[in-house]
Every structure is written in C-alpha cells, then in structure tokens.
Amino acid sequence: MISAFPNRCLVLLALLAWIPAARAQDPATDGARHPQPLPHPSEALADLRLISVPDSPALAFIWNEQRAKQMPRSWFSLSLDGDTFTAPKESDSRVLLRFAEFDPLQTLPAIPPALTRPAGSSLHIVQFWTQGIEPYRETLRNMGVRLHLFLANHAHVVGMSEKQAELVRSLPFVRWVGPFHVAYKFEEGLASAEHPAWDAGPSARFNILTMERGMRGQEPVSQFITASGATVQQTTPQTYLMSATLTRDQLLEVARLDHVQWIDLWGEPEHDMDIARQMHGSDYVEALGDYRGQGVQVEVLDGGCDKKHPDLKNFKEHGPNSPGSHGTSTSGIICGSGGMELRGGLATPPPRPHPPHRNVRTPATPAQRARTTDELPDSGRGRESDTAVCRVLALVRVSMTYQLQTDAMGTSERRPLT
C-alpha cells in the first residue's frame, strides 16, 4: 500500500516512533495522562500495514502487538486527512451477533441448512480492518453497494451482487466479506419448533424490522405476508418496525426476504423509559472515560413540555411552551434527572452512590441548562400529529451548529445555533 503514496513512508516511520509513547499512556482519575513503561518496540509490534482509501486522503495504520506469554492483539490508528492520526485503539475483530460471536478470519459458525442465505439474496456482511469511517462507506456507495445497517464490530450489512462482492473483497480497507444468513435475523431459538412461542398454538405474533425505513421497506413484506395467507397486524410509516401473526413455516419464509433484517417475539407495550441511557449508549460512553455530560448544554425542541414534572429540572424556555406528552417524554429521555427513581436521561445520569469504605471521587452531575419550546420548523410536509416521530428534534449543543431532522424519513440539514 505504501507505494501508492510516495510520502507515506515518512508517515509510517513517524508513526513507528510515536505509537509506543502514545500506547503507554493511561487515563488517570484527574484526566491527566502519565507515561508507563513499554517493552521494546521490536518485541511488541509486528505486521505493520498502512492502508489507503481510493480517491480519499484517509489512511488506516494497523499492526499487531504481542508481549511475552500473551496472545497477539490488533491495534489501529486512523487519519481522515492523511496527516493527523488518532490515538491507537485496540481492535476487536469479532462479529457480534445474537446467533454467534466469531472472528471470520479464524472460524465461522455452523449454520443449519434451512437457515443459510437463500440463492439470489444480495445480503452480505462487509467487515473493515478498523472501525468504519465515512471514506470507507463512500467508496462502497460509489461502487453501487447499498449500506443497510451497522454491525459490530467494524462491519455493515449491505446489499450487493456477487460480482460487486468480489470487487469489495479486493479493497485494501476490507477485512472480510461473507453472507448475511437467515439464521442471523432471529431472536435466540425463535426459528426452532421447540421455542415457547409455539406453545399456545400454531401461530404467534412477531415484531419484524425491515432493512429500509417506512413503507418502502414494509410494503413488500406486507404484500408477501398477505399473499401467504398470514395477517399483518401493524405497520409504522415513520420507522422500520411492523408486526404480523405467522405460523412457523410462514415465519421462516418471511425471514428469507432481503427486506427483513430482524425478527423477535411480539410483546405487550411496557415501560422502558428507565433504560434510555443503556439503549442509546450513554452508559457505555460514561464507562469509557467517566464522561457524564459535564459542561454540556442540552436543548430539546418538541411539542411542549411539562415543566412541573419531578424528573425534569433547570428548564429555561426560549419560545412558547405548553405541556405536551410527547415533548415531556422526549425531554425525559434526553435530560431526565432520575428524580422518580429512574436511571436518568442521556445527558443527566443520576449521582452514583459511593461504595462503602472507599474514597471515590464522584463527579457532580452537571448543572444542565435545558431549553424547551413547542415552536417547530416547517418541514415542508405540514404539521404532523402529536404522535409522529418526525416532530422530535433533540439537539446536544457541542458546537455552533446542529443537525436538524426535518421529516420522518430522516432528511436532515445543518443550521447555525442561535
């Protein structure tokens, strides 16, 4: 790869000198970083590669590191501009599915014959050598590959022909390309005749997630289900979710459709609002570096908010506001204080209890300044009903611009924050 970039040898040599020092730093409790001893680089680093991205300045630097009596570990560093590289990060190359977790270059899971990818299916998994970056995805799009969804780790589920798949395999930043099997689409054990779903009778109701949002993804599945004699219970034009009552044979046939990404057993609606932080990744970010929203101002623009709600504190209005169930719910998801014995919002985790007999530094929950208004920008599609998800705008002020979702299909634009 280096030969394609005449100046990259200098970059590689610089990185070889820089990585051991950067890798030797561990975060301290006060946020400072202190060097720690490392083995000699010649003993620690191997299989160095500098990976280019066609028609892009982006680069990926990957290597393996092995210390005495330890298994090799993979690391990477990324540069979007070809000059400035990120801090080294250890790479986990396992594909994490509910069906199985596996490193595709080491072993592949055994798939029951009835649950393999059907002939003619375009669904593949594409895994990168590093975490995915936009230049990787843009390269795939320019080849006519359709990106459906992210898949941990470093992977996407995509739609492409076998001819396209061969070209994608040859890309320098692609680690592996393999089939997205029907078995990968099910809740654990759901495809089995022994699953409890079938205890009550020959049919059951299931949630179905489609590959594409709205009726573009759900209509072909609905037509297939209806033609098979089964019943579509619900579609949701704003989302990927639909539900249907199916026999086991019908369930397996629906799962074979390329339009379907996931199926699990339907259940009655329930209260899930106390897991907003888990669902949206805030707990993960906090665990990585004790990031709890310190100094971040959160703004919620929705259909109105109940300022008297005990889980919502420190609101400042900057426009007309009247109590509304949807706006109150959205505000709680994003900046709920945990005042009702819940776990807090995305930006406001509840204070953590100190473990007994230990001197633990616990950062104070940030004094969030939340703003609310029910003035919604005109999306060009008319004012939607109070239950439509396209009316939701939640923005975290981390810069002087924000990303605005203007309709249910995810259309967005950037606007200055005033």
Give an overview in words.
The chain has 418 residues and is of the alpha+beta class. The protein has 4 domains: 2-21 and 36-91, no CATH class; 95-185, Alpha-Beta Plaits; 200-265, Alpha-Beta Plaits (2-Layer Sandwich); 273-354 and 361-416, no CATH class. It is 20% helix and 28% strand. The protein has 9 helices and 22 strands. The strands form 7 sheets. A 4-stranded antiparallel sheet has the order 3-4-5-6. Strands 10-11-9-12 form a 4-stranded antiparallel sheet, with helices on one face. A hairpin with a 5-residue loop joins strand 14 (231-235) and strand 15 (241-247). The longest helix has 16 residues, at 8-23. The chain is globular.
Summarize the structure in short:
The chain is an alpha+beta fold and 418 residues long.
Q: What is the secondary structure topology, with strand pairs?
A:
Layout: H1 8-23, E1 25-27, E2 33-35, H2 41-44, E3 45-53, E4 56-65, E5 73-79, E6 89-91, E7 95-96, E8 101-102, E9 123-128, H3 134-142, E10 146-151, E11 155-159, H4 162-169, E12 174-179, E13 203-210, H5 215-227, E14 231-235, E15 241-247, H6 248-255, E16 260-265, H7 276-280, H8 282-289, E17 297-301, E18 315-317, H9 325-335, E19 370-373, E20 393-397, E21 401-405, E22 412-416
Parallel strand pairs: 17-19, 18-19
Antiparallel strand pairs: 1-2, 3-4, 4-5, 5-6, 7-8, 9-11, 9-12, 10-11, 13-15, 13-16, 14-15, 17-20, 21-22
